[in-house]
Design brief:
Order of helices and strands: HHHHEHEEHEEHHEEE
Strand content: 5-15%
Mean pLDDT: 79
Number of helices: 8
Largest sheet: 6 strands, mixed
Helix content: 55-70%
Strand order of the largest sheet: 6-7-5-4-2-8
């Protein structure tokens, strides 16, 4: 949008200050004039102009002096107003320069405006906070794009290699190649769907309705019970009715991802997964706790980043595409919630998702266990 040039804010403030000073001067001089008129007779027709004080003589002598005073006030108002306006708008100039720097792509610049708190300092601090968040978001997006490109390139490269092998050796077992191509293609599809889900949740483009996390926990546990039985993991779920608002599909995906990760990243045998829901003041909490390998706090702090898969990068068909906890964190953030990862002292992970609660939470629900053989 092209705007026509106009007066600067500094000039407007200067003219406003000078105009206010002129109006105040005129009112003051008018008050003095009215006051003096009460004590000066109006006898123009009876006395000569310069013989005795009268209103005509007062006007003759007062008007030039008043004009001189108003002229001085005008010059003083313009000069001092210009100076004061410049001092007052100096912080705004720094904010404008920082904005132009940010538009050129440099998000590392900060205003850091000194002085005590006022409107300009609040604006500068808010702008610095926005720049910090934008810089972190852009860095995260660049890192995510690089990881996504790498992850998508891998199945494509494997597919090309398999096709080249099949073309170079027509007598090779095509059934084996087809099976491997199917597995690679399925992985690429899963990764693409995960990226789309991540993008959808991040945009918050979904309708909201009442959702009970305890029911979602039971549904996710039941759907993943065969996987838990296959891996010899005991899966248990219990807790309170935990009502929140959001997308049932996305919150079910969140719960399923947490339970799936807890089953996959567990002990080779004899592992456990506990899924619980609880109600707190103004919030509901979904907690998933599992046994497993010991995890350092440094590693745990990176697990919610895209394409991180626990202690090591797994290659089994159950390991997922490395977006499980990234999707969980994005869905939680889209529902105004938080994700917390805590390593257990005995190994494994304790994961909680806290979401805003709605009326109707807190009725006790009996414990329910879904054991594996």
């Amino acid at each position: 949008m092209v705007r026509r040039p106009g007066l600067s804010v500094r000039l407007k403030l200067t003219l406003s200050y000078a105009g206010f000073l002129m109006v105040a001067g005129v009112l003051l001089l008018a008050a003095v004039w009215v006051y003096l008129l009460q004590y000066v007779p109006d006898d123009w027709n009876q006395r000569m102009l310069y013989e005795n004080p009268n209103r005509q003589l007062l006007a003759y002598t007062f008007a030039p002096a008043a004009g001189t005073v108003l002229a001085i006030l005008l010059v003083f108002g313009l000069v001092v107003g210009w100076f004061l306006a410049g001092r007052m708008l100096a912080p705004l100039t720094r904010i404008t320069e920082a904005t132009r720097t940010a538009t050129r792509g440099s998000l590392s610049h900060r205003i850091r405006l000194p002085g005590r708190k006022d409107e300009f300092r609040e604006l500068a601090d808010a702008f610095d906070t926005m720049l910090a968040r934008l810089e972190a978001h852009v860095a995260e997006q660049k890192r995510f794009a690089a990881n996504a490109s790498h992850e998508l390139r891998t199945p494509l490269a494997v597919s090309r290699t398999l096709l080249e092998v099949a073309r170079a050796d027509p007598d090779h077992d095509t059934g084996e190649i087809i099976d491997r191509l199917h597995a690679v293609n399925s992985r690429a599809i899963d990764l693409t769907e995960a990226l789309l889900l991540l993008s959808r949740a991040d945009r918050r483009s979904f309708p909201r309705e009442r959702v009970d996390l305890s029911l979602l926990a039971e549904e996710a546990a039941e759907s993943l019970l065969p996987l838990a039985e296959e891996r010899g993991v005991t899966l248990e779920t219990w807790g309170d009715i935990a009502a929140t608002t959001g997308s049932p599909a996305l919150l079910l995906q969140l719960t399923t991802n947490l339970v799936h990760n807890a089953i996959v990243h567990n002990l080779p045998e004899g592992g456990t997964v506990q899924v619980t829901t609880s109600v707190h003041a103004g919030s509901v909490v979904l907690a998933v706790e599992n046994t497993g390998a010991s995890l350092s706090p440094e590693l745990v702090s990176t697990l919610s980043e895209p394409f991180q898969r626990g202690a090591e990068r797994l290659s089994t068909h159950d390991a997922g595409v490395g977006l499980g906890l990234a999707i969980v964190e994005t869905i939680a953030r889209a529902h105004d919630g938080t994700l917390l990862l805590i390593p257990r002292a005995d190994g494994g992970l304790y994961v909680t998702v806290e979401l805003p609660s709605v009326a109707g939470s807190g009725d006790g629900r009996p414990a329910r266990a879904l054991p594996s053989p």
